[in-house]
Amino acid sequence: MNCSGILEKDSYRLCKFAVAYLLRLRGDTGGIATGEDSVSPLHEGMQFLSNILQRVMELPFVLPKYFFRVRPCFGAELHLYDSNPENRDGISVPSGFQLSLTLCLQWKCVLERSDIDISKLYCVLAASSASSCLDVTGTRSKQFEIRKKTAGMVGLNTKLMQFVQNDLGKKREKKRRKKVHVEQKDMVTAFARFEASDSGVGFSSCLLDVSEFPQGSYKMKWHACCIDKDGAYYSLLPLNDGTAFSVRSSPMQ
Fold first, then answer.
1. Disulfide engineering: 245 pairs with which of 42, 91, 96, 209, CB 3.0-4.6 Å?
2. How far apart are CA 236 and CA 107, in angstroms?
3. Would you list the DSSP string of 87-104?
């Protein structure tokens, strides 16, 4: 099928339609005196422009494939485990200590056509001492929670992107764990690096500095990304929620 020929024919028909419509519209408004029924010509003119725009949008434009680049849709599941084998009932840490975690990241295609030649993967964990799981009252609307969750993902992605840029630029950070003053007070973050594998599963470990957290239950947030062979950065769609952990009383207290 010759798409170029079809485009020329449709363009000719569009011009013919526009000229005929304009001449008919001009003839209909020629006998209207000034100030009499002036709304009708305006409505006809708007309808004329609407019809032209609709027909233009239906023209079969043929554009090269390289004009558009559809981003692959990849997702990931993050599973967190307490590095302390004595904690069998869940992830917990004594007050005043850092939380040692073992991470298992599993990435997968969300869409069948998605394809990335992954080189490296990164993940950021975050927790805030100001947002205890026990503080959730259920009085906030779902729309508010969605906005809050989206803003949190954007913030984590910004931190993760900065860490990746420093890592790829061979710039060693003085500290991988740092406190960041954001909307939530006393948020701590930790970063992990994964090696790409054919199995789609990677393992890593990190320390989350919750030494100043009061006793209670908290929930970790996370965000992951991958870098392809060309150095392009892709965020991974989180396919599961963060994991809860608790800060218990220290045996020394």
1. 91
2. 8
3. --SS-EEETTSPEEEEEE
pTM: 0.61
CA distance 127 to 186: 8
Say how far residue 212 (Cα) sits from the centre of its chain: 30
Per-residue pLDDT tens digits for 133-148: 644 444 455 555 555 6
CA–CA distance, 28 with 43 (Å, rounded to integer): 13
- 98: CB partners within 8 A, 6+ apart: 207, 208, 209, 210, 211
Q: Which two structure tokens, joined as six digits, stand for 3?
A: 């798409």
CB 129 within 8 A of CB 213: yes
C-beta neighbour count of 141 within 10 angstroms: 8
The enclosing H or E element of 32 equals none
Secondary structure of residue 79 in the 3-state scheme: strand
